[in-house]
Design brief:
heterotrimer, A alpha+beta, B mainly alpha, C mainly alpha, A: alpha+beta, Alpha-Beta Plaits, three-stranded antiparallel sheet, 25% helix, C: mainly alpha, two-stranded antiparallel sheet, 2 strands, NADH_UbQ/plastoQ_OxRdtase_su6 (chain B), quinone binding (chain B), membrane (chain B), EC 7.1.1.- (chain B), NAD (chain B)
C-alpha cells in the first residue's frame, strides 16, 4: 500500500479536479442534496442553553474564582509567603505581608499574614498553579463555586481580600459539618 | 391636468438635458441623463403608450445608462484629465449644432397638426396584443431587419472582446 | 363613484405598504431565527416571546446610532442611494394581485393596486432601476471598496436580468398576456405554471436570488473582500434602509415567484369554496394561501443562504451568461414548438 492511500481516520477523500459535465456544472443535483442536509438540521435538537436561567453542570475539577481559605476555627491560612505569586505564570497575584499583632490570633493562623492580597482576574488564566504552589492550603480555585462575574471597568476585576477570603460563616459551617 | 403634467415633464426633460451637458462631473451628468430618460418615459405615459414607456425605462435607464455609469465610474475621470478642446473645434461644434437645430425646427414647423386626420379604427393600439400583431404582420420586415442588425452588433462585440489566440501563442 | 375608487385604492395602497414593511421587518427576525435553527441554535429569544420584538429593538438601535456622512462632494447622491433602493423595493407591489376580489357593501373590491396591461414589464422596469440605488450609493461613498461592490452588484443585476427576462418570455408565450391578474387567473385550481414551465421556474428562481443580492450571489456585500459592500460607509437608519430594502425586495420577489409560477392566490378547490362558502371567504382563504406561498419562498431564500456557499465572481458570470441564458433560449424555442404542435393536433 502506498503512502497516499493510507487513511488512519478512514475519512480520507481524494480531491479530484476532473472537468464537470454540463449537468453537473448546473449544480442542481448537488444543491438539492445540500438543501436536504441543511433542512435536517431544522429538526435536530438545539445545542444552545438559555444561559442565565439554565446552567451547564460544572465538572468536579473545574477551576473558578479563587478563594483564600480559613481553617476550622475561622483563621486565615495564608501567610503571605509569596509562593503563589512566584508560581503564577500570568503574574496576576500581588500581596503585601504584615505581622500579626497580639490579640489577632483569632483572625490569622500564623504570625505573618497577607495585609493586601490582590488577584487581577483579567490576567489570571485559571491554570491552578497557585493552588499547587501553596504550602498552607490557603488558596483554592474550586472552593468558591462561582465564576468570575462580568464588569464594565477594568479596576473592578482586581479582586482584593474582600472578595477572595472565605466568609467567616462558611468556615464555621464547614467546621460544624466536620465535627458532626 | 394633462397639460400641467406635460409642462412639468417638459421642463424636467429640458432642464436635465441641459444639465447633462453643462455639469462638469461626468457622473452627475449621467445621472441627469437618467432623470431625463425617466421624464421622457413620463411623456410616453401621457400619450397613453405604457408599453413604449416601460420598454424605454428598461432599455435606456435600466440597461444603457447603467453601462454608461459603469464605464464612467471605472474610468475615474478627474478634473485634471479633462481634455481642453481647441477654439476651432468648439466653434465648429456650435455651428453644427445650430444647423441641426435649424433643420429640425424647419422640419417640425412644416408639419401639419395631425389631430384632424385621426380616424377611429376601433382597435386599441396601446394594447400589447394589437401592437404585437401590427409589429409581426405589417412591419415584419423592418422588425426582422432590426433584430438582425442587433445580432450583428452583438457578434461584432463578442469578436472584438475575444482574445486573439494566435497572438498569444 | 370616482372618489370611492380613489379612497378604496388609497386604503388598499396603505395596507399593502404597511404589509410590506411588516413582512420586511419580520423577515429580519425570521432570517435570524432560520439561520439559528439551521445551525442547531435557538436564535433571538430575549426581546418578547420567541424574540418577536427583536425587529423593533433592531430598528430602535439603528435609529439611535450616530449619523455619519463621509467627507464627500456628493452628499445629495449619498443620501439618494438608500432612498432609491427603498422606494424601488416598494414600488413593485403596485401591480401584484394579492387576491381575486372581495364583496364589500355590494361592490366588488379588486385586491390589486392597479391592473395595468404590461404589469410584467413594469416589474422588470422597476427592477432595472433598482441597480441605481446601489450604484449611486456605492459611488457617492467615496470609498473604493464600496465602488467595487457597487460595480459587482450592478453588473450582476444586469446580467441576470437578461436570463430572467428570457425565462419569463416562455411563460408569457404560454399565457399570452403580460397582465399579472390574468396570469394569476389562468392558474386556477392546481393548474400552476410551475408544472408547465419547470425549467423556466428554476432559471427565474436563480435569477431572483441574483437580483435580490442574496447568497449564493451576494458578492456585492462579500465581507472577506469588500469589507461591508456598498453600504460600508453608511450608518444609522441609512444603513437600515439598505438592509430593509433587501428584505422588502426579498418579500416582493417571493411574491412574484408565487404569482407567476405557483398559482398566486389559487388553491385546489377554490371554485367549490366560492360556490359553497361565498366569494368573500373563498378569496380570503386565497389571500392566506398566497401568503403561505410567499412565506415558503422567503424561508427558501434563507434556507439556501445557509446551504450554498458564495460563488466566485467568474463562476457567477459564467453561470449567468453561459448556462442560464442558453437554457432560457432553448426553453423558449421548445415552448414555442410545443405550443405550435398543441395548436395543430389538439
Amino acid at each position: 500500500m502506498s503512502l497516499d492511500t493510507i487513511s488512519l481516520s478512514g475519512k480520507k477523500m481524494e480531491v479530484s479536479n476532473k472537468k464537470m459535465s454540463f449537468w453537473e456544472s448546473l449544480y442542481l443535483v448537488a444543491i438539492v442534496k445540500g438543501l436536504f442536509i441543511t433542512i435536517r438540521h431544522l429538526f435536530t435538537r438545539k445545542v444552545t442553553i438559555k444561559y442565565p436561567e439554565q446552567k451547564r453542570p460544572l465538572s468536579p475539577v473545574y477551576r473558578g474564582q479563587h478563594m483564600l481559605k480559613r481553617d476550622d476555627q475561622g483563621r486565615e491560612n495564608c501567610t503571605a509567603c509569596g509562593l503563589c505569586a512566584v508560581a503564577c505564570p500570568a503574574e496576576a497575584i500581588t500581596m503585601k505581608a504584615a505581622e500579626r499583632k497580639p490579640g489577632e490570633e483569632k483572625l490569622y493562623r500564623e504570625e505573618k499574614y497577607a495585609e493586601i492580597y490582590e488577584i487581577n482576574m483579567l490576567r489570571c488564566i485559571f491554570c491552578g498553579l497557585c493552588e499547587e504552589a501553596c504550602p498552607k492550603d490557603a488558596i483554592y480555585l474550586t472552593e468558591s463555586k462561582v465564576m468570575v462575574a462580568s464588569a464594565s471597568k477594568r479596576e473592578d476585576f482586581i479582586y482584593g481580600k474582600d472578595k477572595l477570603v472565605m466568609p467567616l460563616e462558611m468556615a464555621l459551617r464547614n467546621s460544624k459539618n466536620k465535627v458532626s | 391636468m394633462g397639460e400641467i403634467l406635460f409642462y412639468i415633464l417638459a421642463s424636467i426633460t429640458l432642464g436635465t438635458a441641459l444639465l447633462t451637458i453643462l455639469t462638469r462631473n461626468p457622473i452627475h451628468s449621467a445621472i441627469y441623463l437618467v432623470i431625463c430618460f425617466f421624464s421622457i418615459a413620463g411623456h410616453y405615459l401621457l400619450l397613453n403608450a405604457q408599453f413604449l414607456a416601460l420598454v424605454h425605462v428598461i432599455v435606456y435607464s435600466g440597461a444603457i445608462m447603467i453601462l454608461m455609469l459603469f464605464t464612467i465610474m471605472l474610468m475615474n475621470l478627474n478634473k485634471e484629465d479633462e481634455t481642453h478642446k481647441s477654439i476651432a473645434s468648439k466653434i465648429a461644434a456650435t455651428i453644427a449644432f445650430c444647423l441641426v437645430g435649424i433643420v429640425l425646427l424647419a422640419g417640425l414647423l412644416r408639419t401639419k397638426p395631425v389631430v384632424e386626420s385621426y380616424f377611429q379604427s376601433g382597435e386599441d393600439f396601446q394594447s400589447i396584443k394589437v401592437l404585437g400583431k401590427v409589429l409581426l404582420n405589417e412591419y415584419m420586415v423592418p422588425f426582422e431587419f432590426a433584430s438582425v442588425l442587433l445580432l450583428v452588433a452583438m457578434i461584432g462585440a463578442v469578436l472584438i472582446s475575444k482574445k486573439d489566440k494566435q497572438k498569444e501563442a | 363613484m370616482e372618489s370611492t375608487i380613489i379612497i378604496e385604492k388609497g386604503i388598499f395602497i396603505v395596507i399593502i405598504f404597511a404589509l410590506t414593511m411588516v413582512m420586511a421587518m419580520y423577515s429580519t427576525w425570521a432570517e435570524r431565527k432560520v439561520a439559528a435553527w439551521l445551525q442547531d441554535r435557538i436564535g433571538p429569544n430575549r426581546a418578547g416571546p420567541l424574540g418577536l420584538l427583536q425587529p423593533l429593538a433592531d430598528g430602535l438601535k439603528l435609529f439611535s446610532k450616530e449619523e455619519f456622512i463621509p467627507d464627500t462632494k456628493n452628499k445629495f447622491l449619498f443620501l439618494a442611494g438608500p432612498a432609491i433602493s427603498m422606494s424601488v423595493a416598494l414600488m413593485t407591489s403596485a401591480v401584484i394581485p394579492w387576491g381575486d376580489k372581495l364583496q364589500i357593501g355590494g361592490r366588488d373590491v379588486i385586491l390589486q393596486a392597479t391592473d395595468i396591461d404590461v404589469a410584467l414589464l413594469y416589474i422588470f422596469g422597476v427592477l432595472s432601476i433598482g441597480v441605481y440605488g446601489i450604484m449611486i450609493g456605492g459611488w457617492a461613498s467615496n470609498n473604493k471598496f464600496s465602488l467595487m461592490s457597487a460595480m459587482r452588484a450592478g453588473s450582476q443585476m444586469i446580467s441576470y436580468e437578461v436570463a430572467m427576462g428570457l425565462a419569463v418570455i416562455a411563460l408569457v408565450m404560454m399565457s399570452g398576456t403580460l397582465s399579472l391578474r390574468e396570469i394569476a387567473a389562468q392558474q386556477s385550481g392546481m393548474n400552476w405554471n410551475v408544472f408547465y414551465q419547470p425549467v423556466g421556474f428554476i432559471i427565474f428562481l436563480v435569477c431572483s436570488f441574483a437580483e435580490t443580492n442574496r447568497t449564493p450571489f451576494d458578492l456585492a456585500e462579500c465581507e472577506a473582500e469588500l469589507i461591508g459592500g456598498y453600504h460600508t460607509e453608511y450608518s444609522s437608519m441609512k444603513m437600515g434602509f439598505y438592509l430593509f430594502a433587501e428584505y422588502a425586495s426579498m418579500f416582493i420577489s417571493s411574491t412574484i415567484l408565487a404569482v407567476l409560477y405557483f398559482g398566486a392566490y389559487n388553491y385546489p378547490g377554490i371554485e367549490w369554496a366560492v360556490e359553497n362558502w361565498g366569494v368573500n371567504i373563498a378569496n380570503s382563504i386565497g389571500i392566506a394561501v398566497l401568503f403561505v406561498k410567499i412565506c415558503f419562498f422567503i424561508f427558501f431564500y434563507m434556507w439556501v443562504r445557509w446551504t450554498i456557499p458564495r460563488f466566485r465572481y467568474d463562476q457567477l458570470m459564467n453561470l449567468g451568461w453561459k448556462m442560464l441564458i442558453p437554457i432560457a433560449i432553448a426553453n423558449i424555442v421548445i415552448t414555442g414548438i410545443v405550443i405550435l404542435l398543441a395548436d395543430k393536433f389538439l
